[in-house]
Amino acid sequence: MRCLLLFLLFLLPSLHLVAAETARPKVGLVLSGGAARGLAHIGVLKALEEQGVKIDAIAGTSMGAVIGGLYASGYKVEELEKLARSIDWQQALSDAPPRKDVPFRRKQDDRDFLVKQKLSFRDDGSLGLPLGVIQGQNLALLLESLLAHTSDTRDFDKLPIPFRAVATDIASGEKVVFSRGHLPQVIRASMSIPAVFAPVELDGRLLVDGGMVDNIPLDIVRQMGVDVAIVVDIGTPLRNRKQLGTVVDVLNQSITLMTRRNSEEQLAALHRDDILIQPSLASISATDFGRAEEMMDAGYRATRILDNRFAALRPPEGSGIELAVARSPDQRTPIITAIKVENDSKVSDDVVRYYIRQTIGQPLDLGRLQTDMGTLYGLDYFDRVQYRVVHKGKDNTLVITARGRRGGTDYLRLGLNLSDDMRGDSAFNLGASYRVNGINQLGAEWLTRAQIGDVQELYSEFYQPMDVGSRYFVAPFLELGSQNIEATLDNDPIAEYRLERYGFGLNVGRQIGTSGEVRLGVGQAWGQAKVRVGDQDLPEINFNEGYYDLKYSFDTLDNVYFPHSGEDIRLTLRQFEPALGSDQRYRQWDLKLDKALSSGPDTWVLGGRYGRTLDDADVVVSSMVMGGARQLSGFRQNSLSGQNLSLMRMVYYRRLTPRAYLPLDFPLYLGGSLERGRVWNNDNEFDSGYINAASIFLGFDTPLGPLSFSYGFNTEDEKAVYLNLGQTF
User: Fold this and answer.
1) Across residues 463-477, what is the average pLDDT?
2) C-alpha closest to that of 499 among 445, 536, 456
3) Are 398 and 415 in contact (CB under 8 A)?
4) I need a surface site. Which of 267, 316, 384, 533 has the fewest CB within 10 A?
């Protein structure tokens, strides 16, 4: 009897806790959608934890599904706060990987004056239009990295806190409630704003933002068996008549009308014991990701005002041990025992596998994996590249999913630049490039570039990788070109020749990571130079060339148009050799260098160019060209020519517009440049001497590409205005 009594005394506290827990009402949390405004949910969670409120179930829509899913999977409030402050939302809500992660081959595409936007074409020649402005590549990767520890949890009732997410079937308009599945993919579907984000294809459905049908999923959390619902409404308020001034305002209002209607229906179903939290977010828009601190504070304050309502919802002390264990960061880095590729693109599985550097038998390296996925996506073969970890017993398989581009992998790009010397002489160039991707499973490409105007060009190259990583390659090419070259005597131009050159050759090379490339090439060319302006009795020049060259390129710029960091180095060494069919033996080298440095909105680009022609050679045939905006400003584009040239410059610009946190970020820059350069020939009949130049410019990074207006002048009393769509430097 005494033993039984002692046992009952020992068991009594536990029975008391069970009774208290049973008496406590089961609490459900409802987190509504509202894009950036959803960061207020983090402040709400912080206040609820301070009040000791235990959440038994969570239902979320859109951004509410993001915050709710992370919290339900074990994230602490402190971790959510840190994420809200540290995530680069502009990067997360775009598709392009950081430029440093893009394969060097794709970086070369930016080197012409072509605009950044490109049109894609399918194999049958039809134009490929996307299902959304943003495919959601980076957002999907972010969710996968944050929720890697949930990969083996298909039943959302088995998460530390049971969870539901709401999406909309865009084909039928039906509400889709997820109680199981792959959590990152489900959350991504729940927040796919129609036309902005591409729909998520899942189980035969095309899914978009759940706010279209149920922005405040109170009905869903009730179905999870809760007694009391805490509802957080952060929906965007309707704008008044005066605030509807543009087509964008009207479009946003239309979306808001749809979400508010179903929201009000849910709010009308609140019970007396339910608690409604409506943070004060009137001054904050759905895209204000940069105001995370304000939104979290608004959610916190709106919750603490209701402190007296939460007393009955507090559990006894000592509960919540399982949740604390689940929130351990150690649970988020599984040991990878195998890697599997699921790929339906034009390139082979081996190509996809090559870019994944995760070591078998080591913990999942999320940082390296994010970089690898960016490099893979940058190949331009995929609609999306994602990963997941599949757990089976003690095995953790990293599965890489690469989905081929439905919109096609062949790309057309255009570009334009104009210059006028304000004396009636102007120049223009209009260019285009067409790239055929994925000719074979190693990723062969055929690039054709054409340009008309002051400088005419046709260049075509077939690029064939020799291994799955494109480390080694061969690239036969064909080129035709025409440009104006001035013949000068005693620093006075005596004629302007039109130089035409036709040639072909072969390059073999090696890529150096994602930042560099070395090419060794051999080529032949022939052509002629006829007098265009000047004494028509001057002789016509016919020539033949045979050469071999070495080219080195290194590019770590974060942005090729308005860089803020990194460097760009390009070096060409070329020798013309009679044994290869050249009329003359001579050597040339050309070095170009730019280094970008930034502090806040201010950026400096330091660099220049130095080109030399060694040995005797025909002046017209061996001349290099310079001139234009920030290349001895004041002169027209490519209006200076000589066998040797040098240029030093310092460019400064300042961003005038605040940074947006969506891909639709079109910064405006105001800047200027200081330049010093010289052009001269080896025969001493022409030497410009050192020329000082300067420019001021206004640059705008438009949806098509960078648009810059420049005014340049120099110590030779030359002045010019420039309009560039595409190339900036």
Assistant:
1) 94
2) 456
3) no
4) 533
In this structure, how many other beta carbons lie within 10 angstroms of the beta carbon of residue 643?
Answer: 25
Would you say 559 and 579 are in contact if contact means Cβ atoms under 8 Å apart? no
One-letter amino acid of 647: L
- Specify whether the CB–CB gap between 649 and 608 falls below 8 A: yes
Residue 727 has what pLDDT? 66
Residues spanned by CATH 2.40.160.50 within the chain?
410-725
**Active site annotation includes 62:** yes
Token readout for 571 is 């070096």
Tally of CB atoms within 10 A around 586: 20
Render pLDDT for 396-422 as a digit per residue (tens, 0 to 9): 899 999 998 888 888 888 877 766 666
Residue 140: closest CA among 59, 38, 66, 61: 66
Can you tell me which residue has the tokens 């990583």?
Answer: 469
Residue 19 pLDDT: 44
Q: Name the CA radius of gyration of the chain, rounded.
A: 32
pLDDT at 35: 84
Identify the band that residue 75 occupies on the pLDDT scale cut at 50, 70 and 90: very high
Output the DSSP codes for 13-77. Answer: HHHHHHHHHHHSPPEEEEE---GGGGGHHHHHHHHHHHTTPPP-EEEEETHHHHHHHHHHTT--H
- Cα–Cα distances in angstroms (integers) from residue 602 to residues 396, 559, 594, 666, 700, in the given order: 46, 15, 16, 16, 15
Residues 502-544 pLDDT 10s:
999 999 999 999 999 999 999 999 999 888 887 777 788 899 9
CATH number of 410-725: 2.40.160.50
Q: What is the per-residue DSSP string for 680-711? A: E-TTSS-B---EEEEEEEEEEE-SSSEEEEEE
**27-95+137-322: which CATH topology?**
Cytosolic phospholipase A2 catalytic domain (3.40.1090)
DSSP assignment letter at 471 = S
Read off the tokens for 239: 């704008």
What token pair was written down for 278? 């409506």
Candidate list 209, 233, 454, 568, residue with the active-site label: 209
Q: Does domain 335-404 have CATH number 3.65.10.10?
A: no
Confidence of residue 321 (pLDDT cuts 50, 70, 90): very low
Q: Return the number of other C-beta atoms located less than 10 Å from residue 241's C-beta.
A: 6
Gap between the Cα atoms of 521 and 364, Å rounded: 41
| Nearest one of 78, 58, 77, 79 to 68, comparing CA atoms | 58
Catalytic residue among 62, 192, 623, 710: 62
Helices first, then strands: H and E counts in the chain: 15, 31
Closest CA to 271 of 46, 24, 30: 30
**CB-based burial of residue 217 (10 Å sphere; 0-12 exposed, 13-18 middle, 19+ buried)?**
buried
Q: What is the pLDDT of residue 150?
A: 81
Contacts of 504 (CB under 8 A, 6+ apart): 476, 477, 478, 479, 523, 524, 525
Lowest mean pLDDT among 26-35, 170-179, 482-491: 482-491
Q: Measured between alpha carbons, how far apart are the two ends of the chain, in Å?
A: 93
CATH 3.40.1090.10 in the chain: give the residue spans.
27-95+137-322
